[in-house]
Specification:
The complex is a heterodimer of chains A (353) and B (505). Chain A is 70% helix and 3% strand. By secondary structure, chain A is mainly alpha-helical. Chain A has a single domain, classed as ABC transporter involved in vitamin B12 uptake, BtuC. Chain A starts with a strand and ends with a strand. A 6-stranded mixed beta sheet of chain B has the order 6-7-8-3-9-10, sandwiched between helices. The radius of gyration of chain B is 24 Å and the shape is globular. The termini of chain B are far apart. Classes of the chains: A mainly alpha (353), B alpha/beta (505). Chains A and B meet through strand 1, helix 8 and helix 9 of A and strand 4, helix 10, helix 11 and strand 18 of B.
Chain lengths: 353, 505
């Protein structure tokens, strides 16, 4: 008996649901060994992990709040990867967006009503600008975008910490944090006594919009075509350079919005730890979602559940919270394996003769 | 049946993919010194049979014997181990590396070190024995297509293979290169190899093989034990099940000059691919461009398609001077293009068929408005084209890449003909297509010509050029080496021009 991969004609629609689910199941199965090693009952630990995140209204909202930056960075990466613009820089673009939002939110002279919209616009522009740099380097000078987008993350991070430790340091607290934004610059809360802020809603609206954009607009069409076959696109008269720059702008602005949500909705200031790697996690989420913008939402929620749930699991069963990281990493690997089945089918072969 | 004298014997091979029976009860025997033609149209099951032999697929039923003993082939590595070498239509070479390095790919080496001197000796040996010579230190990117194929053949027999399979080896060669290939094959056969020569070009099969196995719809439809006893039309009948029916060329009225190039050059003086091209084409004519590949045809096509801009000379379309060409401008001027390499520069194989079908037209108002796609129109247009051009595709959403070569070419044709081009630029439009598919393409060209469009046909297939063209020009080293009206042209003359001879010398 032998196995072989054969190319599929079409990927069945239900694969979009079944594959990620089986990848998640496989992940949990693989990680159960670690849970058992930590001396906990696997079922108990997993039920804590998953049920705590949805057990109360507060926890449920928190899950969505945690998922918000991940949805934005996941979308940013999904758009970029569609065009094969390898944007590893959502992290830096997020930071740029966060700083822009915090800066606008602190300007005393701006009228109150304009603050929130201006913060949103500024963060998108800042993220887009920071993403355009590697796009220009790639299209004009053929510099590898993986390297530039990645390294620009560090540049942005250190620019930020330099500012926070210097000119932008909050004079009142003395910590390396930026001053708080104005009260009227804080994002409106949509559900009383929770942290369900405007950014959460925006992220949930952004996903279907990006989906529609990719599937139903000429620019979205061009983005996928340029990604899949740049030379056929060039021959067909599609301006590749322009499309890649647009892709970078859209991707960067989505990542920038993640920063606006964190500043305007949660922290009301910029501090060095404002993003625990949301930009990088966005890559995993986009892959988990198979670059499908709609899929980004459940993928981000899954990660948010795991992160929120890990603490209650730890408290209840003693399994270290680091399991959350293991689950995230394993999920990427299982999903990449599951991806294989979207383009190939497995045939079992019987030996001849 | 299981004669131990056979080098290779495949018996009762059956293979099905889902509901499609790709091979049914196929027997194939090959002796030392044989050149067996494997003839059949696209989809007749030739490739499946050879893939089974080469370990890419496993047969559902049947057995394979090599030199009298039954074997099981699980992988290409197994096949190579049993002395079966294959030269694919698409080469598998590392372009950045040298000939020698390519030969060592996949070799185990000695203690982890590659045996360069041994490989060099073996290459020399093969050169002496079969006349297959190559400079061991040349980079693959510097080799001509014919030389790259020679390298593939050398690779296939490098490890002392006794059985050599060639999948449509002449599809990429010039007539001259083909002759060289046939000589090499004869030398290999005399050296005791058994060769399977897959083709649908009848004259080649007649020319080079001594036996022919004809396949149709997955089964063997005939076995010719002596090629000399059959004619080309016999083979055609056996292969297609009916007589050939080449399209007839009617006279057409010449119209205005649509496109003219004078003294066109590209690149700087050191990398000049076009060195002053003068060319014009009128409505209602087919201008054939002959030449060995790499003599500037690709660059010429790129200039006309607007992908490459010329550095000197005048490029006029319908009397208008083109100073800054772009693919989009050429589309506007109704110049259609069928690129040489349909998979990489024509279609998007990984996306649905409808994407490939509307790729150049996506900004037209029927397919999008205000930047928003009109999906229903796109899908119904694609379905319409599938029907009109009898493309074998279940629906517009199948992945483009799952279609066969002939159908992919039909997709390109449908796409480029959809909005009635005034000039159609076609590069190697029937390369790798079977007789029926090629006839289909030719018929489309002729009907376009009758409608008054100009067609520029770049081809290495002289038969095709002679059948279709009104005029033939020959390209050699970036220049037009000569031009003749079709009625005055002879294959010999064109062949000489292709090889660099000057007319009247």
């Amino acid at each position: 008996m032998a196995f072989r991969l054969e190319l599929r004609e079409k990927t069945p629609v239900w694969f979009n649901i079944v594959l990620p689910l089986s990848a998640v199941m496989a992940t949990l199965l693989l990680c159960s060994g670690l849970v058992a090693l930590a001396g906990a009952n696997v079922f108990h630990a997993y039920s804590e992990l998953f049920l705590s995140a949805v057990s109360s209204r507060f926890n449920l909202v928190e899950t969505f709040v945690k998922a918000t930056p991940l949805i934005f960075t996941g979308l940013a990466v999904a758009v970029a990867f569609r065009a094969k613009f390898w944007n590893i820089g959502a992290e830096g673009q997020l930071l740029a967006g966060a700083m822009a939002a915090a800066y606008i939110g602190g300007i005393e002279s701006l009228p109150s009503f304009s603050l929130v919209p201006l913060m949103i616009i500024a963060s998108a522009l800042a993220g887009a600008g920071w993403a355009m740099l590697p796009a220009i380097l790639r299209t004009r000078f053929k510099v590898d975008d993986v390297v530039t987008t990645l390294l620009l993350n560090f540049i942005m991070y250190y620019v930020m910490t330099a500012l926070l430790d210097g000119p932008w340091k909050d004079p009142l607290s003395g910590y390396p944090d930026s001053p708080d934004i104005r009260m009227d610059a804080e994002f409106p809360i949509l559900l009383h006594a929770t942290r369900l802020h405007l950014g959460v809603l925006l992220s949930l609206l952004a996903a279907p919009m990006v989906w529609w954009f990719l599937r139903r607009t000429t620019l979205g069409f061009s983005i996928s075509v340029v990604g899949e076959n740049p030379s056929a696109s060039a021959y067909a008269g599609i301006p590749i350079t322009r499309i890649l720059i647009y892709t970078a702008l859209i991707s960067g602005s989505l990542a920038g919005l993640a920063g606006a949500g964190e500043v305007g909705g949660l922290h009301f200031q910029v501090m060095s730890g404002i993003s625990p790697g949301y930009g990088y996690t966005g890559i995993v989420i986009a892959m988990l979602a198979r670059l499908n913008p709609i899929g980004v939402v459940p993928a981000a929620l899954f990660f948010a559940v795991v992160v929120t749930g890990a603490e209650s699991m730890s408290r209840a069963t003693g399994v270290p919270v680091f399991l959350a990281d293991v689950i995230q990493g394993t999920a990427l690997v299982t999903m990449l394996i599951a991806q294989l089945f979207t383009t190939y089918r497995i045939r079992t072969l019987t030996t001849q003769g | 049946m299981s004669n131990p004298d056979y080098l290779l014997s495949m018996q009762g091979i059956c293979k099905s993919f889902g509901a499609i029976q790709a091979n049914y009860n196929v027997d194939l025997n090959l002796s030392e010194g044989d050149i067996l033609g494997l003839l059949g149209e696209n989809g007749a099951g030739k490739t499946t049979l050879m893939n089974i032999l080469f370990g890419t697929y496993q047969a559902d039923e049947g057995k394979i014997m090599v030199q009298g003993s039954q074997i099981t082939i699980h992988s290409t590595a197994d096949a190579l181990g049993f002395g079966i070498g294959m030269v694919h239509q698409h080469f598998h070479l590392v372009h950045q590396h040298t000939v020698l390095e390519n030969l060592l790919v996949g070799e185990p080496g000695r203690m982890g070190r590659l045996d360069f001197s041994g490989a060099r000796r073996r290459l020399l040996e093969i050169g002496e024995q079969f006349g297959l010579t190559l400079n061991p230190d040349a980079r693959v990117s510097e080799l001509t297509i014919g030389e790259q194929q020679r390298l593939e053949i050398i690779k296939a027999i490098f490890g002392d293979s006794k059985i050599l399979i060639l999948d449509e080896p002449t599809a990429v060669l010039t007539p001259y290169e083909s002759t060289g290939l046939f000589e090499a094959l004869r030398a290999l056969a005399e050296g005791g190899l058994g060769i399977i020569f897959i083709s649908h070009k009848l004259h080649e099969v007649r020319n080079v093989t001594n036996r022919v196995l004809v396949m149709r719809a997955g089964s063997v439809s005939a076995l010719v034990e002596d090629t000399k006893e059959v004619t080309e039309s016999d083979l055609a009948r056996l292969m297609c099940g009916h007589e050939l029916n080449p399209p007839k060329k009617n006279t057409s009225k010449l119209g205005d000059t649509f496109l003219s190039l004078s003294a066109i050059k590209t690149g700087d003086s050191t990398h000049q691919k076009l060195k002053g091209i003068n060319l014009s084409v009128q409505g209602g004519e087919i201008l054939g461009i002959a030449g060995v590949s790499g003599n500037g045809q690709k660059e010429l096509a790129d200039v006309i398609a607007g992908v490459l801009s010329h550095t000197e000379g005048t490029f006029e379309v319908k009397g208008e001077i083109i100073s800054k060409a772009s693919p989009r401008l050429m589309q506007k001027l109704k110049i259609g293009r069928i690129p040489e390499d349909r998979m990489t520069t024509g279609l998007v194989t990984s996306l649905p068929l409808y994407v490939s079908m509307v790729l150049p037209w996506i900004r037209r108002s029927i397919f999008s408005r205000f930047g928003i796609l009109r999906k229903n129109e796109i899908l119904s247009f694609t379905s319409k084209m599938i029907k009109r051009f009898t493309i074998q595709a279940t629906d517009p959403e199948v992945k483009t890449g799952t279609l066969s070569g002939g159908n992919l070419q039909k997709v390109l044709l449908a796409r480029e003909l959809a909005f009635e081009p005034e000039v159609l630029l076609a590069s190697q439009p029937t390369r790798g297509l079977d007789v029926a598919a090629a006839e289909f393409v030719h018929r489309q060209f002729l009907s376009l010509r009758e409608k008054g469009a100009a067609i520029i046909l770049i081809s290495e297939d002289l038969e095709e050029l002679f059948a279709l063209s009104d005029r033939i020009v020959v390209m050699y080293e970036g220049r037009i080496a000569g031009e003749t009206k079709i009625n005055d042209a002879s294959v010999e003359e064109i062949g000489l021009l292709m090889a660099g001879a000057t007319l009247g010398a």
